[in-house]
Amino acid sequence: LQAAADKIEAFNLEEEAFGWQTTAYPQRISIINTLKPYHNLYELTVDFNTKYKDWMDGPMGNVDPDNVELEVGNFWRGLYKLEKGFDGIAAPKKIAGKVKAK
Question: Is 98 exposed, middle or buried (0-12, 13-18, 19+ CB in 10 A)?
Answer without folding.
Answer: exposed
